[in-house]
Every structure is written in C-alpha cells, then in structure tokens.
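User: Hi! I have a protein structure encoded as tokens and I'd like to know what sequence might fold into it. I'm fairly new to this, so please keep things simple.
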C-alpha cells in the first residue's frame, strides 16, 4: 500500500502511516528494505510525531502454561486489543496528516489506490 513517511525512529526503522482513514494503514514501524521511495513530496512538519518512539510498539508478553488434551482445543484464543493510548495517538496523527494530504491535489486518491507490480514491471527503471 501507499503510505506517508513521518520520521526515522532511533532503531533505524521508519515510522509510516496511511493515514488509517484513507487506506487502513495505522502508525507502523517498517524496515527500510520494504519501502520504495517516490518523488511525491508532502510537508509533514505540522504533524506532531515527536512523542512516538520504538517503545510504543512493543508487545506485552503473556506467559501461558502448556495445555494437554481437551484443554488445548477447548481454550478460546485471546485477541489482543489495541490500547486506548494507541487509538488516541492514531487519531491525533491522522487528523493532522489528512489536513496536509487534502492540500495536495489528487494525493488522497493516490494514497487510496493499491500499489502492485506485475511480472514484467521493473521497479528500478520506473519513475514514481
């Protein structure tokens, strides 16, 4: 999917966002090798992402005991819920980012479109 680069985190990973309302991509850390940079420029200086760090993306580890027999199949899988802090951070970043995206003509449609490469496409020769 097409996303907006917000900043580089201390670990070297990139902080990106869809925004979630446009194409369903939340605030996320991505390794640089999975990103293809384009020539499209957006001024994201008005988006406040200074509070976002690598620590915001760590998961809590829940230790569970081994289950045997019927206990294994009877147990319901616990779904991890997104914390209210992450929802608030996503909403704050998205409102500022959507305002910036709407200033650039056709950028909303560009971000909403799905990115794909077919068999004969050569991304190193393309101009994005």
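Assistant: Happy to help. Inverse folding works backwards from shape to sequence: for each of the 128 positions I chose a residue that suits the local structure. Here it is:
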């Amino acid at each position: 999917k097409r996303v907006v680069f917000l900043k580089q985190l201390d670990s070297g990973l990139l902080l990106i966002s869809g925004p979630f309302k446009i194409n369903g991509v939340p605030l996320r850390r991505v390794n640089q090798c999975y990103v293809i940079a384009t020539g499209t420029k957006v001024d994201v200086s008005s988006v406040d992402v200074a509070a976002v760090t690598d620590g915001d993306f760590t998961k809590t580890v829940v230790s569970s005991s081994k289950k045997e027999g019927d206990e294994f199949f009877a147990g319901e899988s616990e779904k991890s819920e997104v914390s209210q802090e992450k929802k608030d951070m996503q909403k704050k970043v998205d409102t500022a980012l959507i305002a910036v995206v709407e200033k650039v003509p056709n950028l909303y449609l560009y971000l909403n479109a799905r990115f794909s490469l077919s068999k004969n496409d050569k991304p190193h020769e393309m101009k994005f």
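A useful reference point when you look it over: The first helix runs from residue 20 to 23. Feel free to ask if any position seems puzzling.
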